[in-house]
């Protein structure tokens, strides 16, 4: 297999301390399709649950996990992991995986509070399969759960093979969502890498998303 090239990145400054690096078409259509099918068939997909208000709900998507040292569901995943680490100079424990089976699956507005230290984080997301909206907006000063007052300001809308990386205070000051898409029948798979510097003030309080290992989108 040929060596995977480093992504060509364009930086989107969300504000003075938050940013997103966007690499459109990092994986070729052939590589994206091959990895997509390999993950779709080779990952042990699990049904996650979230605790909302007074009881557990089945999460409207499936999840999985791969860590170096374990057999990969597809060989290309190892190369993708290596290049993401090398390009952003971070050591990631592994790759979280989410499968949105169709347009009825989604994830609500949220920040990755499970990292606890949110002042300096790096979260990479590689999209495979169906193109869907992927929205960002500033976090309101006061909000409950996923009710956020500020309007959506960005839609990254990744295609298969697109990679984007959120950094700085993006998890402290911004929220993101993958909304439902009526009549969409095709799956989307999201690969996610998460890192925190563990600097700054630690986020306090629990999260209804805490029991699951996959979370970014």
List keywords for this structure.
217 residues; 8-stranded antiparallel beta sheet; 12 strands; 15% helix; 4-stranded antiparallel beta sheet; single chain
> Secondary-structure element order, as H and E?
EEHEEHEEEEEEHEE
Q: What is the arithmetic mean of pLDDT?
A: 89
- Please summarize the sheet with the most strands: 8 strands, antiparallel
The total count of strands amounts to 12
> Oligomeric status of the shown chains?
single chain
Q: Kindly provide the name of the CATH class.
A: Mainly Beta
> Which class do the helix and strand fractions yield?
alpha+beta
Give the strand line-up of the largest sheet. 1-2-10-7-12-5-4-3
Q: What CATH architecture label applies?
A: Sandwich
The proportion of residues in beta strands is 25-35%
CATH fold label: Jelly Rolls
Summarize the structure.
This protein has three helices and twelve strands, in the order ββαββαββββββαββ.
Q: How would you characterize the overall build of this protein?
A:
By secondary structure, this protein is an alpha+beta fold. It has one domain (10-196): Alpha-ketoglutarate-dependent dioxygenase AlkB-like (Jelly Rolls), CATH 2.60.120. Helix content is 15%, strand content 34%. It contains 3 helices and 12 strands; from the N terminus they run ββαββαββββββαββ. It has helices at 29-42, 75-88, 170-173; strands spanning 10-13, 18-23, 46-52, 55-66, 95-100, 107-110, 121-129, 135-138, 154-155, 163-168, 174-178, 188-196. The strands form 2 sheets. Strands 1-2-10-7-12-5-4-3 form an 8-stranded antiparallel sheet. Strands 6-11-8-9 form a 4-stranded antiparallel sheet. A hairpin with a 2-residue loop joins strand 3 and strand 4. The longest helix has 14 residues, at 29-42. The relative contact order is 0.25. Mean pLDDT is 89; it is low at 207-214.
């Amino acid at each position: 297999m040929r060596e995977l090239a480093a992504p060509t990145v364009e930086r989107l400054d969300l504000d003075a301390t938050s940013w997103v690096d966007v690499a459109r078409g990092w994986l070729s259509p052939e590589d994206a399709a091959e990895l997509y099918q390999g993950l779709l068939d080779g990952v042990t997909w699990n049904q996650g649950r979230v605790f909302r208000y007074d009881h557990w709900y089945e999460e409207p998507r499936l999840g999985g996990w791969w860590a170096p040292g374990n057999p990969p569901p597809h060989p290309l995943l190892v190369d993708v992991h290596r290049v993401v680490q090398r390009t952003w100079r971070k050591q990631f424990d592994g790759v979280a995986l989410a499968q949105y089976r169709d347009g009825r699956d989604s994830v609500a507005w949220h920040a990755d509070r499970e990292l606890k230290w949110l002042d300096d984080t790096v979260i990479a997301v590689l999209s495979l399969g169906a193109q869907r909206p992927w929205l960002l907006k500033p976090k309101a000063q006061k909000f409950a759960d996923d009710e956020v007052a500020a309007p959506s300001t960005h839609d990254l809308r990744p295609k298969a093979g697109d990679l984007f990386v959120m950094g700085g205070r993006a998890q402290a000051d911004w929220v993101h969502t993958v909304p439902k898409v009526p009549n969409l029948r095709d799956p989307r798979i999201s690969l996610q890498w998460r890192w925190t510097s563990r600097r700054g003030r630690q986020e306090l309080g629990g999260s209804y998303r805490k029991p699951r290992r996959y979370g970014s989108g």
